């Protein structure tokens, strides 16, 4: 918690967002957030210019964001000679992170074959609160919010960089059973013994995508215990469902 | 009960009440160094657990679904700052299907249980010491 004394006539105190003083400000009439300033740690690490940047805020409507982004990405007759826009960056912080990821997932679903790069960092935020009564003291609040930046590109990206995710078509397709069994083969040897339910296939799809993208050294060993555990997890879930009281 | 018409118009919500039950999302087979983050357990406890796993394994994987995405990112970034930059993060995103069971409130009304599917976002963050 940082508290710096006043420099000029109007008292300015700096607080960090987790301090108990912040709770006092809510109580003691610092009602309105008058100004919000964000520290600009903007540039996506190591990215060339000429990229559409979509800043997702908490109140953004996904329909509006996707309408704009899809129109720009699918706009074939470009006036620069190249076919439309090749890359787009979705960035958001704090409560907008989930919405950012959802936007990126929707775009990946609608436009296939997009390479993805995800970067996480902290974004600093400086809020200035002014007192409603008295009017001569103000409090600056420093917050650090987790923020995410997702780059979607039609051109291939560097697969060795951390945060890279290949296009989904290479790993799984939703309804295609053939690809699911092929992906499942990569994951465990004894998958052929398990009954081919559509639900089990979805687990394979999700799990194989997970293990392929992570490609950890331990991906071979849990597969054997994984298949047995999956069947019991299915049974457990059925039992669980019946025991939950109606809400 | 109003059934959807063949013209493809919207399904009308019938006057019979349904209880909503969310099915649990599919739990993946868990390796020793997989951590699933939720909003029910205390944040510091989850952070300490991740830190302890990181001491014994060279890499851990943190998963978060829906609202827990924020918490997962927070845990990963905290681990990175407390390691003084020795750790690297790699984040992958995915979509998870969640199924809700709608059951009729009144057992006398012969309503059939409906299921509704929705999509949710998930994040998987790999936290690792990079190979020299």
From TrEMBL, chain A:
Stretch list, region Disordered: 156-195
Cellular component, GO, one term: ribonuclease MRP complex
Any one GO molecular function term: RNA binding
Keywords tagged on the record: Nucleus
This protein's name: DNA/RNA-binding protein Alba-like domain-containing protein
Annotated compartments: Nucleus
Similarity-based family: Belongs to the histone-like Alba family.
Entry annotated with the keyword Nucleus: yes
DNA/RNA-binding protein Alba-like domain mapped to chain residues: 53-122
GO terms of biological process kind: tRNA 5'-leader removal
Main subcellular location of this protein, as a coarse class: nucleus
TrEMBL record, chain B:
Family the UniProt entry places it in: Belongs to the histone-like Alba family.
Location relative to the cell: Nucleus, Nucleolus
Function: Component of ribonuclease P, a ribonucleoprotein complex that generates mature tRNA molecules by cleaving their 5'-ends. Also a component of the MRP ribonuclease complex, which cleaves pre-rRNA sequences.
Protein name listed in UniProt: Ribonuclease P protein subunit p20
Keyword tags: Nucleus, rRNA processing, tRNA processing
Origin superkingdom: Eukaryota
């Amino acid at each position: 918690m940082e508290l710096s004394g006043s420099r000029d006539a109007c008292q300015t105190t700096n607080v960090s967002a987790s301090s108990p003083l912040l709770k006092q400000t809510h109580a003691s009439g610092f009602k309105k957030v008058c100004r919000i300033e964000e520290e600009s740690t903007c540039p996506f690490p190591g990215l060339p210019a000429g990229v559409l940047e979509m800043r997702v805020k908490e109140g953004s409507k996904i329909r509006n964001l996707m309408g704009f982004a899809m129109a720009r990405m699918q706009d074939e007759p470009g006036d620069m000679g190249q076919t439309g826009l090749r890359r787009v960056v979705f960035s958001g912080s704090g409560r907008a992170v989930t919405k950012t990821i959802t936007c990126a997932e929707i775009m990946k679903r609608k436009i296939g074959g997009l390479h993805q790069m995800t970067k996480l960092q902290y974004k600093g935020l400086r809020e200035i609160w002014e007192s409603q009564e008295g009017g001569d003291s103000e409090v600056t609040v420093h917050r650090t919010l987790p923020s995410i930046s997702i780059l979607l590109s039609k051109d291939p990206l560097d697969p060795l960089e951390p945060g890279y995710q290949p296009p989904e078509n290479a790993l799984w397709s939703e309804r295609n059973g053939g690809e699911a069994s092929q992906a499942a083969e990569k994951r465990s040897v004894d998958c052929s013994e398990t009954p081919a339910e559509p639900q089990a296939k979805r687990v394979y799809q999700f799990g194989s995508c997970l293990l392929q993208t992570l490609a950890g050294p331990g991906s071979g060993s849990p597969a054997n215990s994984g298949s047995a555990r999956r069947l019991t997890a299915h049974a457990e879930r059925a039992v669980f469902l019946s025991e939950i009281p109606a809400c | 009960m109003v059934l959807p018409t063949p013209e493809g118009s919207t399904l009308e919500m019938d006057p019979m009440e349904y209880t909503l039950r969310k099915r649990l999302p599919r739990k993946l087979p868990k390796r020793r160094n997989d951590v699933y983050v939720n909003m029910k357990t205390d944040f510091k406890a989850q952070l300490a657990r991740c830190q302890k796993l990181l001491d014994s394994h060279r890499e851990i994987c943190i998963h978060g679904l829906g609202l827990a995405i924020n918490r997962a990112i927070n845990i990963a970034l905290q681990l990175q700052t407390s390691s003084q930059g020795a750790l690297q993060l790699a984040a992958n995103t995915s979509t998870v299907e969640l199924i809700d069971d709608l059951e009729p409130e009144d057992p006398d009304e012969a309503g059939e249980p409906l299921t509704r599917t929705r999509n949710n976002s998930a994040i998987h963050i790999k936290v690792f010491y990079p190979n020299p």
